[in-house]
Amino acid sequence: MTTSFPETKTGPRFGLASAALAGCVAMVLLTGLPVRAEDANPVLAKVNGAEIRQSDMALAEEELGPSLAQMDPTTKQENVLSFLIDMKIVAKAAEAKKIEDRDDFKSRLAFARNRLLMDNLLAFEGKAATTDEAMKKVYEEAAKQISGEQEVHARHILVENEDEAKAIEEELKKGADFAELAKKKSKDPGASDGGDLGFFTKDQMVPEFSAVAFALEPGKISDPVKSQFGWHIIKVEEKRDRKAPDFAQVKAQIETYVTRKAQADYVAKLRETAKVERMDKPDAAATDDKPDAAKPADNKMAPAKK
């Protein structure tokens, strides 16, 4: 049998054997009978007497990751099982050659052990901190900063030089449709949408553009405006006070933020009691030089563009 070894991914290994657990729960609901552990985690193959179970498949699928993404379920099952069979065979051969006694193997094994311990503990701490109360608090604090900020909905036509911009300005004064001119003459990627930029805040555009757009009244068209991108003609469609998106829209972002912040805080707390000696920088404060093991995600809550 010839089997390729799919490329593995690196990173945290959390939430293992979820498929097996889901199957177990479903069986109880359908039959009303208790499900034995061995039924929920069946043996799929044996290699020289060593068992490969469904839980091993779940581990392997998570580890192999993207290399399985394009496979249909049957092909994926066959490839993963073949990989596990080959892994058992090759691992046994490695034991026979005393690979595990080599220093480089011991170093990699120690590193992998520490990484797994770190990943699993941080996952636990992050999950414990991600409560509804904590997420709602983050949402409310961010919503206060967002609410009341002004937004403008505008269109623009972008051209190379001032002469082109002035010519377009004249056409608009004669009654030409702004959106149609944008489709024909603007070099901006949004030209196909009639130059529509949707709603934006001041800090989302270059200063020259924002200064004019926020000064214009709805329905008005600007004189040519120069920026680093070229020359713009701007039409303001609408102005409004920005509102925070609904909690449900940003719940996933907030959950990620709360999880990562909890992990970062936990690592920082551990550092306070750890004795760290930097041999590469003996005079530097160890706590100042250590990189973050878990960095909080950006907590900006931006409404969807129209």
Written account of the structure:
With 306 residues, this protein is an alpha+beta fold. The protein has three domains: 1-101, no CATH class; 104-145 and 245-306, no CATH class; 148-241, Chitinase A, domain 3, CATH 3.10.50. Helix content is 51%, strand content 13%. A hairpin with a 2-residue loop joins β5 (225-227) and β6. α3 packs across α4 and α6 crosses α10. The protein is elongated, with a radius of gyration of 29 Å. Residues 1-33 and 297-306 have low confidence and may be disordered.
How would you classify the helix and strand content by structural class?
alpha+beta
Overall pLDDT metric: 84
Count of helical segments? Answer: 11
Structural domains: how many? 3
**Range of helix content:** 40-55%
Strand line-up of the largest beta sheet: 4-3-6-5
Low-confidence stretches: 1-33, 297-306
The helix/strand order is HHEEHHHHEHHEHEEHH
Shape call? elongated
What is the strand tally? 6
What is the chains' assembly state? Answer: single chain
Distance between the termini: 54 Å
Biggest sheet descriptor: 4 strands, antiparallel
Rg over CA atoms: 29 Å
Amount of beta strand: 5-15%
In short:
The protein is an alpha+beta fold and 306 residues long.
Annotate the secondary structure layout.
Layout: H1 18-31, H2 37-40, E1 43-47, E2 50-53, H3 54-64, H4 73-96, H5 103-129, H6 132-146, E3 150-159, H7 162-173, H8 178-185, E4 196-200, H9 207-215, E5 225-227, E6 230-241, H10 247-273, H11 286-289
Antiparallel strand pairs: 1-2, 3-4, 3-6, 5-6
